[in-house]
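Page 47, continued from p. 46.
Same chain as before, 137 aa.
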Amino acid sequence: MLFLISFKSGTPIYLQIVEQVKAAAASGALHPGEALPSIRPLAEELRVNRNTVAKAYSELESLGVIETLPGRGCFLKENHSGLRKDARRKLLIEEVDRAIVQAHHLQVPRDELLELIHERLDVLDDKRRAHEGKKED
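Result:
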């Protein structure tokens, strides 16, 4: 798993790690039972204190996202299905909020933004249908 840490974002590093693990679990990039990187190597890779990574893993464990198996490491828990929906929704809300703010800055009226969203959904549906049609051939 690849972590992208921003030291300038204002978000604590341990929370960035937590959010990225939750996002990977929600998107399916991280599968139940899959091991997370060990604390020490990850801390060295990210160039952060080991305690920062340990705090992130502790937070993830308290949220029920991961489990720690002594001597083996940390693994994504099997029963995180509730998280998947919540995490996906949170990620989507963040993206929608960014688009809304961008539209506001570009002075795009609400109706025009909603029309654009519907257009893009239609384009996606057309692409999906075309792709499904190619599979059948």
